[in-house]
Amino acid sequence: MKRKKGLIIGIVALLVILAVGLFAPENISSTLASFIAQDLRIALPLAVAAAGLVYGERSGVLNLGAEGLMLTGALFTWLGTSLMGGNPWLGSLLGMFSSFLMALLFAFLVITLRSNQTVIGVSINILALGLTSTIYRVVQSMEAPVYNFPSIAEVLSKLPVLGPVLTSPTETGVQLAIAGTSTFGNYLNTILSQNVMVYIGIAFIIFLQFVLFKTDLGLKVRAVGEYPKACDTLGINVFRIRYGAVLFSSLLAGFAGGLLVLDIKSFAENMTAGKGFIAIAAVIFGKYTPIGALGASLVFGGAQALQYLVQAIGWKIPGDLMNMIPYLVTIIALAGFIGKTHKPAASTIPYTKE
Amino acid sequence: MAPILEMKNITKQFPGVLANDDVNLSVEKGSIHALMGENGAGKSTLMNILYGLYSPSSGKILLNGKEISIDNPRDAIDQGIGMVHQHFMLIPALSVIENVVLGKKDNKKIIDLKKDADAFVALGAKYNMKIDPYALIEDLAVGQQQRVEILKAIYRGAEILILDEPTAVLTPQEVTELFKIMNQLKDEGKTIIFISHKLKEVLTICDTITVLRLGRSQPSVPSAGTTREELAEMMVGRKVILNVPKGEYKPGENVLEMNNVFTKKGSGSLDDVSLEVKRGEILGIAGVDGNGQDALIDAITGLTKVTSGTVKIKGKDITNASARTILEQKVSHIPADRHKRGMVAPMSIRENMILVSYYKEPFSKHGFINWKFVNENSEKIVEQFKVKTPNIDEAGGKLSGGNQQKMVLGRELTRDPDLVIAAHPVRGLDIGATEYVHECLIDERDKGNAVLLVSTELDEVISLSDKIAVMYEGRIMGVLDKEEFDITKIGMMMAGHV
Amino acid sequence: MKKNISTGDVLIKVLTPIVAVGVALILGMILIALLGKDVGAAMGDFFSGALGSTVRIGDTFSKVAPLTFTALAFAIASRCGLVNIGAEGQFYLGGIAAGVVAIYAPGLGIPAVGGLVVLVLAIIAGFAAGGLWGLIAGWLKVSFGANEVITTVMLNYVALYLNRYLIGYDGPLYDGSGQPQSAAFQVTFPKGFLIKGSDLTFALVLAILGLVFYYVFFFQMKKGYEMRVVGLNPTAAEYSGIKVKNNALLSMFMAGGFGGLAGTSEILSSQSRILQDFSSNYGFDGIAVALLGQLHPVGMGLSAALFAVLKSGGLAMGNKGTVSPYIVSVIQAFVIILVVASVFVQNEYAKKKLIKQAKAKKAAETAEKGV
Known about the structure:
Structural class of chain B: alpha/beta
Distance between the termini of chain A: 39 Å
Helix content of chain A: over 70%
CATH topology of the largest domain in chain A: ABC transporter involved in vitamin B12 uptake, BtuC
CATH architecture of the largest domain in chain A: Orthogonal Bundle
CATH class of the largest domain in chain B: Alpha Beta
CATH superfamily of the largest domain in chain B: P-loop containing nucleotide triphosphate hydrolases
Number of strands of chain B: 23
Number of helices of chain B: 17
Radius of gyration of chain B: 24 Å
Strand content of chain A: under 5%
Structural class of chain A: mainly alpha
Shape of chain A: globular
Strand content of chain B: 25-35%
Number of strands of chain A: 2
CATH topology of the largest domain in chain B: Rossmann fold
Order of helices and strands of chain A: HHHHHHHEEHHHHHHHH
Largest interface: A-C, 48 and 49 residues
Oligomer: heterotrimer
Helix content of chain B: 25-40%
Number of helices of chain A: 15
């Protein structure tokens, strides 16, 4: 089975990572650990957005406005978090809601009015860029402290019995108990000390994979993207499935945009800088599956994390050239793998009920 | 016995077309009821209304004497109505069982495919059908896909089963199998509505016949005691000439010659094909759809790669030459799917008229298109081939199907061809346009040109051709002379028996 | 045979963009009001900034050339069925190449290389550089099937960083001034064309020539006809012996070339050296210009003029600090959305008309029978 191949690659990668931690000298293992940690941090928003986009794509809607949805989500997550005393949970809710509204416009145009998905997607991006930048200039002054989601150590430390076992206190807070136990412990600690959202995100992506391939709803989504007319003859409401998939994916895109904000704790004009498009590329590269999209996001995240690696090694490469790498890697991934995946047959074709 | 289903005064208005005009239909329980008519007579529209895909402009539907409303296919399925569409409503990328359970109302949130697969296999066994529930639809042969469709409808509890042109994709032998299944279903008390335009089949299998003509229903007749001629007249509204007059058969030298041609492996690829078509001859290619006819045409016209063997036109080797080089050997090609290949729908008629020769003088000079000549030439073709249009600036896509085909025909035949390749040239056309197209093809033959006619309509192939080659799985099963034309024999060859 | 294009159809074609622009402007004003700004003051800044004096008008119209060229970059690809979102990157590449010629060619000491020759060389270089940048996306599409929307967007970012690198402190074009910028151009397009004291240059004439070329190429030349066939129905193109891939490559080269010309005309008209991020969004403006102009040469010319006003008025508002110049992007997006969505309304209208006609005909028939 083809799907097994990705699994094998994943397992091999995990084993290599473990082996390096166990057997490599400390300077190498710590460099690798921080590279992986950076990769996970950068990949998370991409993977969350991409996993949602898989649903839209599977239902036959290519949402090239993902970039705009992320950007909208970013601004309003920032605004929401600022207004709610820095609470990232409430802020994210506002971000998701704003992205949802944008997607509602997109969905109405491409599903109900059957407008060209590409052109509308692009115009959603222009609209989002204009709106967020215009609004940001006005609300900029409301800036208040923004906090990110808690780290995994903070969350674990609050568990009743296990808390003290898994974590240990430090002068400023808590850390995972494995920190400082050995070289390998430090290595694992660097990799595992993530924001709790990395863990929730990965679990959720696995859940999305399950829903898509094992449930009645997932079957409908997949079928609608292949042959909507056939679904119609079986009494499936093609429009409802497509609306649902697009709107659901917009929630994740908005949330992902918010993650970018929470990560740097501020908003900047056009801060998504192509990440929405990279997420779409991750969908294709990941063979239109949520877990595949996660894997692809780790590859793209790795391309961006390379600059930390290069810094650590001490190479002097101009930053502007390093900044190109994620975009170049995306292009190469698209060119190299696109023909080898099965694209939903009805992708980008509007459905007309006679 | 009271009718299980009645459709009363059904009218359906589409933009520009009145598809059903006060249609009445009454179907007895446990019978096989034929719905006959020419292409465009409104059969599919009527059944799509019954199945909830279209809503009628007016009229009502009664089931077991009670009026019901069917707003969408879900209502139809709930009322025990199932439909097997002419173009199968199966999703190629999914497995058989995924297709079977898709959209089923009693599905659990997390689906248990195994349970359904077992039940489905058991149901299949009842009708002597063996189907692997986990196979992907795209890997199944057309006949098997049809069985999945029929079983799928029954599995969902269909009591009334609509079969839309089910025999179009089958060999005569497979048709016999299908009829067996239909009779078995009838014996179980199920009701079948059989849509067809094939006289013989209808008289063989059906109990009652309703004919639609130009969107209106004719009074139903019992099949016993009705003749083919009577039915044909009901369908067309006048006596039909079943034989097209043509000149004496005087074959000349070879225009097309194919020797041991293979194309890239895949479904419907050519497998050692050798053929010749002579001047003054129509060679008909018979076969069930998808048995290499497309690859045959593509191999001749340079649209697919020939992996071994040679293709010659007028003695010149054109194997794997570019499409343009081949067309320049005075080859005209009337493609199977005119919308996809034969025309550019959003372009005007005059722009469509130069699709193949725009680059040549006098159509263009020094890189510029000579619109004055193009316009005059287009006007001429439109007149000669009776294309009905307000003017040559009209978009090709806005013409009716028959007029589109006349436009393509006019463009291709005015190029003074030596070889005419016509693929399903009358598909979707009404009787008038069909006769016109056939006359044009015979005219080419009588002028001494070679014609290669590909069609899945056996009647068309038999009545037009001087010789028939039968294709099966990319191979030529044999070439028959006029005196050997025999439907049983051709049918056996279409199914792969020599 | 008489022409049968009804006046109603033409009216709809002309009215649609006008209504779209009107509605988009109103939506823009509503947004300004919602943000708690004084709409009247904003509009005042907008109009005085864009059209307040003859010189201002000249400055505003200096933006027509780059806008027309980026619109052509979108339209040419679009005619061949491709979506070129990469005009922004092509703009950078064209600008850089033209800039390099304008900096270094005069210093080569070749006596024949006078001012005009340098400009011609710069234009050629700009077209070629942008064209090759576009060709990359074309090649990726044709050879690997990579979605050109994504690749062109990615290439936009690569171009942006490439420019930053070239004029940055480590870059080969850095002038050592302590600012990330190149050396000054030795030759530029002379300003004050038509309107003295304004930034307007004869790049405007080049842009009009570009539109003429566009018309002649697509509607009078066989190569353009061929490209349109590919754009509208690639399968039919193959059937008739047209090489689909070659056309896609050529159209992306031409589209990219015009994107490059946009950069060339902007950098040699309004700037004196290559600076960071010198595009100010022209690539995306071009998409709106092309769609609003319905890919028609005259339409694109007119909408380029309209967007020049929008852009320069928007910048004026930004400079005065009333509203972010990005408000123009909002209006642009609404314009595109409204124009594209109007297709649906038009189709529905046509369908309704057909049904009405059919019903009238039927009624007439029944009436006849009744008599």
